[in-house]
Specification:
By secondary structure, this protein is of the alpha+beta class. The protein has 14 helices and 22 strands. The strands form 6 sheets. Strands 5, 6, 13, 14, 15, 16, 17 and 18 form an 8-stranded mixed beta sheet that branches. A 5-stranded parallel beta sheet has the order 8-3-2-11-20, with helices on one face. The chain has a 3-stranded antiparallel beta sheet with strand order 12-19-21, with helices on one face. Strand 14 and strand 15 form a beta hairpin. Helix 1 packs parallel to helix 4 and helix 10 runs antiparallel to helix 11. The N and C termini lie far apart (48 Å).
């Protein structure tokens, strides 16, 4: 039910979850004049996945006025190298975004990064409440309210319910569980282990992230300040078991048995515990109601290859902030605007997953090999121009600049459908 319009009163927004999505949304709304409270239990794992960022995030940092601080805690990232084996690799350089986005991004330690976003929200006047929020459904069963004991922690609102309640609880998906909202779940059911290491060389050029096809699954190397190297592996749970029963055994086993990692990281020294995450894809069937909405991972997330997770969390927060009035509570148009927001979010997540699927099933490498064959057979300016055109669009999608661009999506489809000659994508697939 839409709350009555009180044009002079700041819109009251309760956000459940204090990760980057929740605090970004809170900061932007508070700066517009809304009354915003973030409810969070303060529990965070020692290591948080999502250390590699993409250029699409840099304009958000600039609009929030925090890029200088991000640069201080992070490492400049010029691009991503995706390797098939020791001799075959694809460079996705962020210079492809020139004229559309900044041509760089950052790699960041997540605890410091998340703390920066939280401080920025607090400076904007966001109310922070350390609690495990208790939620209820209203009489209609379709809307979300704060339980009396949680509402009592917000005396600023004089016992009145918020105009909007936002789920920023991440993969806990509190609202989906409360309201029985189903989701489309991806086919892969992988496990991811990662840790921080010292005495490992950084990939070249400095700051470049490496995504590596492994015997089973894939892995990453992310340069971090220190200098540290975040090393992670993603694979099917059954394959992981061949390296041992614990997360430590499985991560170290993969590194020791991979012909590249075992050499490049032979002198590695682990300086953190091993973090484990479930790796799969999920997109909710619905992301809003009359008085509620989801943001970030609470609505959906895709495979972490190419690092879209944190980008879509903060981008969705910025998009959602534009759909919420700063004063007067919910307007009659607000539910429609919230629905338009999550439909946009679903389309963006699907676009990222579509690109990532082309890496998993081998089409990207098959396209690349076909292009190299054509350049060898028909050398000259036209072949060079076509190679640069394809590389620019693929790299541009990886920056986020072209991820949902109709032409780039069409080009990817055309090449994956008609542009492969003499190579079988399955030979290049990530198992």
């Amino acid at each position: 039910m839409v709350a009555p319009l009180h044009s002079e009163r700041p819109t009251r927004v309760a956000i459940v979850g204090a990760g980057p999505a929740g605090n970004t949304l809170a900061c932007l709304l508070a700066r517009k004049g809304a009354s915003v409270a973030v409810l969070d239990d303060g529990q965070r794992p020692p290591l948080i996945v999502g250390e590699s960022l993409v250029p699409q995030m840099v304009p958000i940092f600039q609009r929030m006025g925090i890029e200088e601080e991000v640069a201080k805690i992070g490492v400049v990232k010029p691009g991503v190298t995706v390797t098939f084996d020791a001799t075959q690799e694809i460079y996705l350089m962020f210079t492809a975004a020139r004229g559309v986005l900044p041509t760089y991004a950052y790699n960041v330690p997540r605890r410091e990064f998340d703390a920066l976003i939280a401080r920025t929200a607090a400076e904007a006047g966001v109310i922070s409440v350390a609690t495990t929020a208790k939620l209820e459904r209203d009489a209609s069963g379709k809307n979300v309210t704060l339980a009396p004991e949680t509402l009592a922690l917000l005396p600023q609102w004089n016992g009145e319910q918020p105009d909007l309640v936002i789920d920023a609880s991440g993969r806990r998906r509190l609202f989906a569980k409360l309201l029985g909202i189903e989701a489309e779940v991806g086919k892969r059911k992988d496990v991811s282990h990662f840790a921080h290491y010292e005495d490992c060389p950084w990939p070249e050029p400095a700051g470049q992230v490496m995504t590596m096809r492994l015997a089973h699954g894939w892995g990453w190397r992310i340069p971090l300040p220190g200098p540290l190297l975040s090393i992670g592996v993603v694979m099917n749970r059954d394959h992981a078991k061949q390296y041992g029963n614990t997360a430590e055994q499985q991560l170290e086993g993969v590194i020791s048995n991979d012909p590249r990692l075992s050499v490049d990281c032979a002198k590695r020294r682990r300086v953190s515990d091993v973090a484990t995450y479930a790796n799969y894809q999920l997109i909710s069937h619905c992301g809003s109601g009359d008085n509620w909405a989801m943001v970030g991972d609470a609505f959906g997330f895709v495979d972490p290859m190419l690092s879209p997770g944190l980008c879509m969390a903060m981008l969705s927060a910025e998009k959602l902030a534009g759909s919420i009035p700063s004063h007067g509570g919910c307007k009659r148009s607000t539910p429609r605007e919230l629905e338009a927001y999550w439909r946009w979010f679903r389309e963006m997540l699907s676009a990222w997953q579509h690109l990532i699927d082309h890496f998993y099933d081998g089409r990207i490498f098959a396209i690349q090999r076909t292009g190299l064959d054509m350049a060898t057979k028909y050398p000259g300016k036209f072949s060079d121009m076509m190679q640069r055109h394809v590389e620019k669009n693929l790299s541009g999608m990886a920056t986020g600049a072209y991820i949902n661009r109709p032409y780039s999506k069409w080009l990817l489809w055309m090449l994956g459908t008609f542009g492969i000659r003499g190579h079988t994508p399955a030979d290049f697939a990530f198992r």
